Amino acid sequence: MSDGIFIPLINNVALLLAMGALYDIFSFEHKRLSVLKKVISGILIGVIGIAIMSMPLSIVSGVLIDARSILLSVTGLFFGFIPTVIAVAITVAFRLLEGGQGIFAGFLIIVSSSGLGLLCHYWRMNLNESRAVAWWQLYLLGVVTHIMMLFSLLVLPFSTVDLLLSELAIPIMLMFPIVTVLLGILLTHQIERRKAELALKQSEYESDLSRQKLEAIFAAIPDLLFEMDSQGRYYACHSAKKDELIAPEAQLIGKTVFDVMPFEAATTVVEALGEAEIQGLSRGHQIRLPLKQGERVFELSVSLKEGRDYDLPHFIVLSRDITDRKRVEKELHIAATAFDSQEGMLITDSDHAILRVNSAFTRVTGYEPEEVIGENPAILQSGQHGKSFYKEMMTRLQAEKYWQGEIWNKRKSGEIYPQYLTITAVQGGGGEITNYVGAFTDITQRKKDEANIHKLAFYDVLTGLPNRRSLQERLSCAIQSCYLTGQFGAVLFIDLDNFKNLNDTQGHDQGDLLLIEVAHRLSTCVRNADMVARLGGDEFIIVLENLGVEESIALTQVSDIVEKLIVAVQQQVSLDGIQYHTACSVGVTLFDSDDVVDSVMKRSDMAMYQAKESGKNTYKFYDPEAEKTLCSMAALESDLRKALSGKELELHYQAQYRKDELVGAEALVRWFHPERGLVSPAEFIPLAEDTGLIVPIGDWILSQACQQLKEWQSDPNMPSLSIAVNVSARQFMQEHFVAEVADCINRYDIQPDLLKLELTESLVLQDIEDTIDKMNQIRKLGIRFSLDDFGTGYSSLLHLKRLPLDQIKIDRSFIRDVIEDKDDAEIVQAIIAMGHNLGLNVIAEGVETEAQCMFLAEHGCTDYQGYLFGKPLPVDDFETACAKKRLAC
Prior knowledge:
Layout: H1 3-26, H2 35-53, H3 68-79, H4 81-98, H5 103-126, H6 135-152, H7 158-220, E1 224-229, E2 234-238, H8 249-252, H9 257-260, H10 263-279, E3 281-291, E4 294-304, E5 314-321, H11 323-339, E6 344-349, E7 354-357, H12 359-365, H13 369-372, H14 387-400, E8 402-410, E9 416-427, E10 433-442, H15 444-458, H16 468-485, E11 489-496, H17 499-506, H18 508-524, E12 531-536, E13 539-544, H19 551-570, E14 573-575, E15 578-580, E16 584-591, H20 597-613, E17 619-621, H21 624-645, E18 649-658, E19 661-673, E20 677-679, H22 681-691, H23 694-713, E21 722-726, H24 729-732, H25 737-748, E22 755-760, H26 761-764, H27 768-780, E23 784-790, H28 797-802, E24 807-810, H29 812-815, H30 822-837, E25 841-845, H31 850-858, E26 863-865, E27 873-874, H32 875-888
């Protein structure tokens, strides 16, 4: 076969390969290919046929030998009827247009090859052949097609046929079936690829559809889904609500429950997995997890996952949030418990028929459930309330859907009892009342307790008289009554005299008996409209009302009543066989509409103390001047307490001389009030004694004196001066007084013999043995003692001998008139002589004249203190005066 034959055939084959692209573009294997696509593809195939026919193998003029037979047979087989017919029409038309002696043969070739292709196409369709066309089937089609092609040439003249067959028969039969196979295989491959692509698309579509369905199913499931192994390791998770996950999904995968959960919850999960591994299924395990919205409770359902071979068993874990369910269960449990609580409860329908009662209802009312179910609660009515009461109850229930209050009901036994009832109307969805719920408590005991509490709150337990609280209410009402009537009233404040002695000697039982008897006697002395109350202890109050509009008349009436009750109280009383006499002091004050309770009580209290000060067993009307004095003392006491912390106290020093030599000083406290100025010691020292403030004041004086001694010890001009400090009875009797004195000496590191403590005669005689013991302990510290105001008390020589004294001080009252008064002179001489005989130093205070000093010196007293030698001075002035004295000397 020459190159002239081979090259056109190769060009034809190349054009045939364009069919593969065309087939791939129009997807002819798709059963639903549109008619338009089929027409277009037929036209394009026809164009390819024209192109093939335009490059024929020309051996004989007018005869076109080309590869149209391959094109059209394969078109019929793979493209179907419409594209084939259109391609046939186009190629026939082109062949007719070309003309020549081979027109009819060309027509036969076109029709036979396309017809054979269509025949094979419909044959495969009838057989429902879904398999790809085999190569041998393609080869057979090529052979048959080109045998028919060669037979079609027989219509040509014999000489032409002979030439053509001799030149082309073998090449055509060798090459064209093979080309048919190649083209068919190409198209078959495209068919299979397209099928695979379509199958893949369909698979992807179905996969997407399945995934969407699965996601929709998962989204509809409110629970959490996990895939885990037996160690609790996460492999997959799903949650419709991401905030229910203990951690984001990306952080969970690959981790175990122990990495993300509390240990207790993680342990429970692993236990559930282990149970599912054994039984195939596990349900009911609950865990608590701390999430952003708070702690939540989850219930686990675990099933063993079958199928693939895993290193460890895998499980599907369903986790349901049951927090709300647990809360509802708890509320239901509480509601059930509450219904069967200690309160009686009943539920009725909207027509008031009883539907249910609890056990407490039966216990309180005595009715069994079967006796009251279906009945109206009216069976419990006591008859104590009228119709208007129940009508008002129902009106409130209809309006407010709630009623509560105290009510009297009747038990099955007929006993009427008080109960506290609460009724709540239950509404339906439309707002209509569907039920009534009643809860009640038997308050019988509470009523009794209230009565007892009222009695305890307003009455004295011992005497049965009204107490302070009741008194205040009654007095307040009495003052208001004065406003309405314009009449006076009076309060009598009664205090038994020496009642403490009875308690101390005979015991409190006897004291209680006396109080009961006095309460009875006082009650018999007043009118029924008047009030007798016990204030506390041995104090009683009587409130008298309606004493008239004239003050003088009121005073007369009150005086008569007071005198009567004093006499009544004085009468002898028998206390368990012991005859006892008592008395009382009474303070009286009138009141009117302008008064207030506290003021009236205060005035009567002051008047009572005035009666006490007047000798007891008497009465006194309120005195405004006495009130002023008491108020002044109270204010002074308050200021004195502030003086200690406010540094208002100051020590002054008065010189003590032996002949002409300064030997020491007495420390005297002075109070400089910020408003009143200097307050006299005679005014505030007794007050300090009465209130106990003398103890901290005395401690302060002792500390200041020791501090001053320390400073003088360091001063070369004043190293040997002593300081005398007055010690009060209260201060000396303190348990820790000796230790405090020792602490001061050690703290300031002073010479103890330079400190002198001055005690009064009255102090040392209070408890002589204890006094001597304390004085001896202090004496061992090196401190000296001086007996102050000697001669004014009743100390005996025996006591003076026993006391570890160093000095006695003659009181200023004897020194003042020692020159003019012979008795004072003899007393002073006697004291000096006695002191010398006892080996004691004697010092005289209050020395103000040279005559007094000379008298004392003549009789052997050479230690002096008084204005003659210097007034009490502040420490700076005292030191300056001492310096001047030394210069003068």
